[in-house]
Design a protein that fits this description.
Blueprint lengths: L9 H18 L5 H8 L3 E6 L2 E6 L2 H10 L1 H11 L4 E6 L3 H6 L1 H7 L28 H12 L8 E5 L5 H15 L5 E5 H15 L4 H11 L3 E5 L8 H16 L3 E6 L11 H7 L3 E5 L4 H15 L5 H9 L5 H18 L5 H12 L8 H12 L3 H5 L5 H17 L4 H7 L5 H15 L3 H14 L3
Length: about 450
Amino acid sequence: MNDFDFEQSQSEKNEYDELWSEILQELETTISAVSFDVFIKSMKPLTVKDEKLVLMCETNANKAVIVKNYLKQINAAISKKFAHLSALIITSSEKDEFISKPDEFLDLVPSPPEQPVSSIFNSKYTFDNFVVGKSNQFVYAAARAVTENTGNSYNPLFIYGGVGLGKTHIMHAVGNYITKKRPELKVLYVTSERFMNELIDSIRSGNRDRSNSMNFRNRYRNIDILMVDDIQFIANKTSTQEEFFHTFNDLHDKGKQIIISSDRPPKEINPLEERLRSRFGWGLIADIQPPDFETRLAILQKKSLLQNYNISDEVLAYIAEQNDTNVRVLEENLTRVYFHSKLFEEPLTVELAGKVLKDSTGEANETLSIDVIIDTCCRYYKVTREEMFGKKKNKEIVYPRQMCIYLITEILSMPLASIGQIFGGRDHTTIMYARDKIAGELKNNPHIKTACQDIRNIIYKK
């Protein structure tokens, strides 16, 4: 069976459908509902050929609209999930011709211009809004040195520290700085999970097209800076460690910069090949410690200024005292207190902050779990857990799902990626969208505000 024998097995069909389903989740947040339903959702994935995800639409008119107005967004969504792929749109009437002469269609797709293309970095994560204190000043100085002398200062730069202390922030700050100051450099930022998934995909598709394995290696070795987040997850992944070892060697030998983050130092990543552990120590290993009180207060002041929150230093100091191990939770607590004040029109005082933080992280939380919140939302909206975690996008399911996600993020201190895994493997950006959508509607929609308070009361058994 060749690449374009479309009498595929059911498992192959599911593979492409599942891939397209993940991309649709991303597109749904960037394209209007009407356009999404009419043009995007109606397309069907056909196959993958020469790093093109072939999507089939119904008519030439639809194809013209999609290519003209939405191809850029489709490719951006594909790139977030599967960085080596882009879209090729054909019509259902072109299917047979495409099967028999695929290369003619592929030849019609203009080759992208050869230019340095870097990963997209979060614009909020910059050196300017990274609050420097005793706990992180060494990492900050090392990161700044790397941006001024890539490949020569601290190569690799290995950053480690606990959850929510700013590792991802500092890596995005490096990326934002370099792509702005030196746009000719190719900067690639990935999580270790994405590196592993792309490797697996290249191996799987390489059984049909051997060039895919070469494309994977070219993608990771023809760059100037490689940034890998959460490297600890390659522990116990033999093939991933093998490929990363060769990628590391190739880049390092060429004098290219490597930046790695982890939640622990190399010596504590187990099982990890000793040759990788040794190479991680070739440059500089720097840790980020939990911030002291002064740094925590400065972080909250900075966050308040950037978000235009009008909060007194007295309240900020109280919030800073409640958490000393996780900057992310610290900022989430600030947001929670601020929006509670706005939502329920209560004065923003130390007493209010105490009440809100006790509800979310104090004694009541000892008996709370994510299952309690999910089950309460399911009962309230009369939906099943399968529907809550599933792929259905009708309003009767989507709205309860978004409310449930919002309440989990408000009540529990869980990473967005972890919540996404619970909700059917959704991307963290989808979780962010659901959270922010409900948070926005709470300000203006009294029905949503009432429902949210009702569910909270049930959860806390008030």
